[in-house]
Amino acid sequence: MAEEKKVAPIGIWTTVKPFVNGGASGMLATCVIQPIDMIKVRIQLGQGSAASVTTTMFKNEGIGAFYKGLSAGLLRQATYTTARLGSFKLLTAKASEANDGKPLPLYQKALCGLTAGAIGACVGSPADLALIRMQADNTLPLAQRRNYTNAFHALYRISADEGVLALWKGCGPTVVRAMALNMGMLASYDQSAEYMRDNLGLGETSTVVGASAVSGFFAAACSLPFDFVKTQIQKMQPDAQGKYPYTGSLDCAMQTLKAGGPLKFYTGFPVYCVRIAPHVMMTWIFLNQITKFQKTIGL
């Protein structure tokens, strides 16, 4: 009986470990990358180039403006990244078992990434909505500002003023964007890590850094068009007649395509890539270091 009680916690930890490690690595990466994320959102809202947005924010709002929405960003990582990285680890493990332990082909990794992204986005959508609104708040006229004090206040206000289901406003484009991002991020990391380790003979550090860079690029390239549409949907305000500028994500995409052409979806791509790629890289690096540390203490 005593032996059975000792085995149970180990099994529980083995199951939850990928989720805990994924969330922790994402939160650490967010603490570093938050200022760049703020600049990216302001550019997508049409406030100018990276240099002008940075200068204006610092001059008019102070250094604290670059960290506005940090609580929502951390909450998002605690939900979204916890779910997506944990799910991806479990899905690939199950797929590997079905494949007799052999390395998974790229298409199976991509399918696992798509599924993990959808799961993570559904769990993290409320925090993502709070983050977008908090970051965009200072760009609105004074009368339209929501003045959320932190992520939990934002979630409470949205639920109280608009209903609980409003927390998932824009969930459709959020899920699609997350599926595209995670297909690019997760599948490319595993595939490039295998190639660098097995074919190029790189060491652990070089493999992690190199695969993280590849992962970051593909995550940005695959997801920016969906991120652009998602941001427009989540920040839209009704006019005086109560009518919203877009009826949905497809309508937003069509209006954007008609107004600015395909390249409009890549507005702010350099900053977006600079933001996404380092965040992805740091998430993988932090995850690798957390895993190594846990091994040294026997977890």
From TrEMBL:
Solcar repeat residues: 13-94, 104-195, 204-293
One Gene Ontology MF term: tricarboxylic acid transmembrane transporter activity
Claim: Protein transport is one of the keywords in the record: no
Keywords: Membrane, Mitochondrion, Mitochondrion inner membrane, Repeat, Transmembrane, Transmembrane helix, Transport
A GO cellular component entry from the record: mitochondrial inner membrane
Membrane topology: Multi-pass membrane protein
Subcellular location: Mitochondrion inner membrane
SUPFAM superfamilies, per the entry: Mitochondrial carrier (SSF103506)
Protein family per UniProt: Belongs to the mitochondrial carrier (TC 2.A.29) family.
Protein name: Uncharacterized protein
The organism of origin for this protein: Eutrema salsugineum
